[in-house]
Amino acid sequence: MYLIFTVKPMKGDALLFFNIHLNATADTTSLHGSCPVIEGEKWLGTKWIHANNYDMPYKKLRRNPMSKLVNV
């Protein structure tokens, strides 16, 4: 069963959803997307919260992982 709904954006609000179940298996009903901007600007921020340790990819980078974002 899939729920289909929209969330009206309001300045200062945040939307949190989980894409895994409590036992850390994938929740395939968490499929989501976004709508195109028709007027104005779209700002977003993403915060990934991992069920397991996720430090390894950053340790493999030779430079600051944020440097690509800062030097755009």
UniProtKB/TrEMBL annotation:
<keyword id="KW-0223">Dioxygenase</keyword>
<keyword id="KW-0560">Oxidoreductase</keyword>
<keyword id="KW-0479">Metal-binding</keyword>
<dbReference type="GO" id="GO:0005789">
    <property type="term" value="C:endoplasmic reticulum membrane"/>
</dbReference>
<protein>
    <submittedName>
        <fullName>Putative procollagen-proline 4-dioxygenase</fullName>
    </submittedName>
</protein>
<dbReference type="InterPro" id="IPR045054">
    <property type="entry name" value="P4HA-like"/>
</dbReference>
<dbReference type="GO" id="GO:0046872">
    <property type="term" value="F:metal ion binding"/>
</dbReference>
<dbReference type="GO" id="GO:0004656">
    <property type="term" value="F:procollagen-proline 4-dioxygenase activity"/>
</dbReference>
<keyword id="KW-0408">Iron</keyword>
